[in-house]
Each structure stands twice: as structure tokens, then as C-alpha cells.
Input
Amino acid sequence: MSRKVTDKAVADRTPRHVPTIIVGSGFAGLGLAIRLQQQGRDDYLVLERGGDVGGTWRDNTYPGAACDVPSHLYSYSFALNPNWSRSFSRQGEIQSYIRGVAERYGVLDKHLFDCDVTSASWDEETARWEITSSEGDFTADTLVSAVGGLCEPALPDIKGINDFEGEIFHSARWNHDADLSGKRVAVIGTGASAIQIVPAIAPKVAHLDVYQRTAPWLLPRMDRPYTLPERLAFRHIPGFQRAARAAIYAARETQVVGLAKAPALMRGFELLAKAKLRYQIRDAELREKVTPNFRIGCKRMLISNDYYPALSRPNVDVITDGIAEIRPNSIVTKDGAEREIDVLIVATGFHVTDSPTYETITGRDGRTLSEVFDEDGQQGYKGSAVANFPNMFFLVGPNVGLGHTSMVFMIESQINYIADALSTIRELGLRTVEVRKDAQNAYNKELKAKLARSVWNTGGCASWYVDKHGDITTLWPDFTFEFRRLTKKFDVAAYDTTTARSERKVMAAR
Ligand code: N01
Output
């Protein structure tokens, strides 16, 4: 991996000035870097704390890791891949795809890897971001946060967890040196990660305890390998792959009607999921335990064909009594039962609405992003800007997430918006751009009204989509093509701007 861009700056520790700094190189940051490269811009740098591109797809290497959105849709529109081996690709294939795209578009030389950004503060005087990192200090005219929502593993706050003496790791930090063969293993959590891990490890472990707090809804996974003729067709028949992608997109988009607009329509999915549950789990007691008690869609709908069969194995137990404490070699549940284990896998999700990165970004009025979100609510504008943070843009900021279709679609919409913002700043000679608070408030008022009637709000569940104020600050509550329309052009009128000249005028007036 090349480091030539910053070697000198790192060596002498002087802050290096880069016009645009992007933090993070998952689908989002990498996609923006490629767009800037395509526009012939050479004035950006990507700071990435990991050793490679890929973000969450680089980090989540647990057994069974795979995407639950079909790959022909879950990929960049500008870099379709006719060679996907199956409809829902596995982690390794997705990671190779992302890396391949980064190589093909020649942006790796504009990355600084193993560079952990530790703080970013706005300096009003210079109108620059001051950035500190494990690889030295930087200043930037514009900062883009592309760190993503699923990057900081959340460990459960359970009494005694730190005293556990066996092997313990989070699903997103899988310890591949830990041999699970013949071991007594426990998995805490039954979310999207756990339902992939459980079937992958159940056949090899001696015994597996699955600690379930909330039973998830499961739908069939229509996954299959692509045949050679299909792959040849994707490659050689003009428009075939685009048509397949469009069909997947349209089919997925229909779910928005039930999820965001008329949750009663989700009953249809519930009937399908219940039929699957009855068919796959014959034991009435187990079936009762894993039957969800909220409206489908309120938490992310999961897809799997092998999770229920794995739970039905004789060496697997589902435990629903709630964990009281973890001891050096066992887990004790609230009913007093103690179960010995050798390995503990925590598949308990991520810090999404409480990302630790929020505490490291300080805006115009001296408050951190975390303080602003605490005091003003976790709000943004078009998921791409936050008032009080001038010259800063977000990829996958507030209310951009999805449960039903490809995040890459949303990310590309934001890339359009932010790339246009950067061009506008340049063309108009702007010194600062900061979204107006009234524009942000009006935008969020509309979002809230839409979210109020959504299944995420009315479905009777507790999910990570909701922040500590009880607001859904992670999801986009409408069709994704509506977000594409909203982000087509940078709407500079929604921003307070200054130019170098207006700044000078203000200084003179003082
Ligand atoms: O995490 P989660 P995840 N004691 O937060 C339980 C994406 N993803 O890593 O439901 C006991 O969904 C928690 O219980 P409850 C996708 O967006 C995508 O699985 O809160 N249990 C839950 O069961 C997904 O939504 C793919 O009651 C505790 C589980 O841990 C997101 O990543 C694949 C607990 C956490 O589930 C996160 O998924 C995988 C505690 N103290 C992931 N704390 C794709 O295929 C938490 N839990 C694209």
C-alpha cells in the first residue's frame, strides 16, 4: 500500500494541509474518492484507520458473513460486476470486489492506511479543520466523515464480563486463531450477525448456547449460485445486468410502502415468516421461544434458511431467561441456572447513535458533535451536513440508513450531493458553507412526520434505529429514489456562506 503522499509530513510532524480530507474508506469514503478522482481533482486524501479499504466488509470476517441484499444491487452503479458467483455474495467476495474497484480507479495512492483520526476541530480564524491522527496532524478546508454507522462494536454491559477467562470476542473482531472445534460456545445476540454465525459454527462445536433477548423475524433467503450461462449473459448481453439490477431495485423498493407508509401491510410478510417458522421448527416449545412479539420490519427483517435448522440441532440450546452475570467459566441466567462455556462470542451490534467518534469532532461554537446531538437532537440535513459544523460533510450521516435495500444506492446519492457541494464551493470561491439551522429544522420536521407513522415507530420493538431521546435518527423514511432526487444537486441556498471577500469586509467593519 503506498504511503508516498504523506511520508514527508509524517516524518517531520508538521501539519500537512490538504484541501479535502475524507475519513474512512468503506463503500462511502472510497466511492467519494473515486468520484473526485474522476473529476480530475488531485486535492484530497483519505485517512483510513484500517490496513485496507472495505470498512465493515473488511472488518466483519465472522464465519457465515454474507450480504442480505443481492450483489447486483449491492455494488457501485459505475462498477457493475458480472462475475458475482451467487445472488447474495459472501464477505470475501464483496471485500475483493471493493479492493478491485479501488485498484481499478487508481485511488489507493490517495489513501493513508493505518491512520487513526483522533480529533477534528474547526478553527474559525483560519476557516480550516485541524485534524490529529496516529500518523500526524493535518489541516483541511473541507472534512468529510465517512466512518459509517457499523464500525464501533458495542460490548454488552453485563456483570462479570471482564472476568471471563475463556476466549471472548465480538462478531466484528472475529478471532480466527480461536479453534471452536469440540468447544462449549455461547453466542450473545440474535441479530443479523448472530443468525449467520450460529449455523456456520453449530456443526463443529461440542455445544452451543444462543442467548436471545428478542426473537428476530426471519424470511427465506433466495440465495443460489449463478450458472455460467447467467454470468456470460451478465457480461455479454448489453443491458442484461442493468435490467437485473433494476428489477431487484424495484422489487425491494415496494417494501417501503409497508415499512414507512402503511405498516398494516407488513402482515403479509409476517404470515410468510410464520409459515417458515412452523415449517422449519417442529418442536413446539422451541417454536414458542423464537416467535417474535413485535410487528415485522420494526427491527431489521433477517433472511436465513439455515438458522432455524441450526437451533433445532441437539447440540444447540436457545436461552431466553436473561443473563444475570458472567463468571470466569460460565454464564448465569436470571433463573439461577449456570452454564459452563469455553468460548464467548458477543454478537451484540454496534454503537450507532452513540458513536465514540462524535466526541472527537468539535464544531464552530466549541461543542462536540456528541454535545450538539445531545442538546439539539441527532439531526442533520439530507444526511450530509449538520448545523454548527462548517465545511464538513457526512456520508451516512443522520437518517440515511435502510433496512430493506442497498446502502450503496443511498451512498451514491450522497456522493452526488457532496461532490457537487465541493464543486460549488470552488466555483463560487466560498470560504465557508454551513447548513442553516432553519433549513435543518424544517427538513427534520418533515422527516419526523414521516417516521411517526412508520413500522419502526409503531411496531412495538426496541431497536438500534432509535437514539436515546427516543427519536429514529438512523433511517430514511421514504422511497430511496426520493432521496436520490433530493440530493441530485447541492442546494447552496440552504447554507450560510462566506467568501474570502465577505470575510475581509466583516474584518474591516470590526
Ligand atoms: O447487531 P444487532 P448485528 N444482552 O444490533 C442483542 C448490519 N448487518 O451485528 O434485539 C443480551 O442487529 C440484541 O438483542 P435485542 C445490519 O444493518 C448486515 O447482528 O436488542 N443481548 C440483538 O439480538 C444489522 O442490523 C448484514 O433485544 C444483547 C443483538 O444482540 C447491523 O449490521 C449482516 C445485549 C444485536 O443485534 C447490526 O447487526 C450483519 C445484551 N446486553 C449485520 N445487547 C448484512 O447481511 C445486545 N444484545 C448486510
